Amino acid sequence: MKKKYLAFEVSEDTSGIFVNKIVEKELSQDIPEGNVLINVKYSSLNYKDALSANGNKGVTRKYPHVPGIDAAGTVEVSNSALWRSGDQVLVTGFDLGMNTNGGFGQFITVPESWIVRLPPELSVREAMIYGTAGFTAGLSVQALLRNGITPEKGVVAVSGSTGGVGSVAVAILAKLGFQVAAISSKEDAISFLKSLGADKIVARNDFEDRSGKALLKPQFAAAIDTVGGNILATLIKSLNYEGVVTTCGMVGGGELNTSVFPFILKGIQLIGIDSVEIPLEKRLSVWEHLASDWKPRQLNDLAHNISLAELPEHIDRIYTGKMKGRAVLEL
């Protein structure tokens, strides 16, 4: 008798409506060469998962499908010389949860090249508190550090600061000694953001510029933007000389309406952050930092556990911008 496992599956009905349910799937032990079967212990919820669960064909082309762009657990069966049964591993990015069944199921089969060995300082749950969001935050912090941003340079702003990427970025920056200005549209988020180490809370409506000016009064040495749109444009115009801003999200819009003036008059750098296709060797260095010197003391306070049955409620919450911190799926 074949072994079965549970998964959160999204399908498209005959009227084009996307529905989800917990299903029992058969586990295949026939693992292709160079692939690994992982027993998933934890996953986490990201905005991209919500897009997939709501039928966004730009994320997932074919249904039925199991979302979940993050997974951490133990190697069950390996058809790879790189991995052995019992290895503790994590997977983020690449095609996981997009068109390859993802971490919202108890088992995944992935190519050997997608897998990162779990750092010994991290538990599988802590790895998923980070997940793609935390990894993206780590890449963003790394970009600032590599471009000369130090605590002595001044305040670093973080937009979308209550979300997955933003909340982890605030906590890491605070751990590294930066003064952090957390930009948020949530009026009830002050205590949460203060607990992460934010020095100042900036209301999004008060910050966002609609004047059309090419430059604004300098406020920040650098910024980590997770929102895009006009918030990113405002941040670019609000940086000090030789300021650096990273961008990794577009919930505020995919358009960027600005001018060249901040770049040619103040030497501003705009750095795009990709966490999906980044090569393995670059992944490893960030995960090593996340497990050690960048690891916030409040890491476990960033997240709460949820079950497969609780996924629909939390998918709706993150899809509508109401999520605070990280939701970790316990499988």
Task: Supply database-style keywords.
27% helix; 331 residues; 15 strands; alpha/beta; 7-stranded mixed sheet; 6-stranded parallel sheet; globular; single chain
Summarize the structure.
With 331 residues, the protein is of the alpha/beta class. It is 27% helix and 27% strand.
Explain how this protein is built.
It is a single chain. With 331 residues, the chain is α/β, with parallel strands linked by helices. 27% of the residues lie in helices and 27% in strands. It is built from nine helices and 15 strands. Strands 3, 4, 5, 6, 7, 14 and 15 form a seven-stranded mixed beta sheet that branches. It has a six-stranded parallel beta sheet with strand order 10-9-8-11-12-13, with helices on both faces. The chain has a two-stranded antiparallel ribbon with strand order 1-2. Helix 1 crosses helix 9 and helix 2 packs across helix 8. The longest helix is centred in the middle third of the chain and has 23 residues. It is globular, with a radius of gyration of 20 Å. It starts with a strand and ends with a strand. The model has no long low-confidence stretch (mean pLDDT 94).
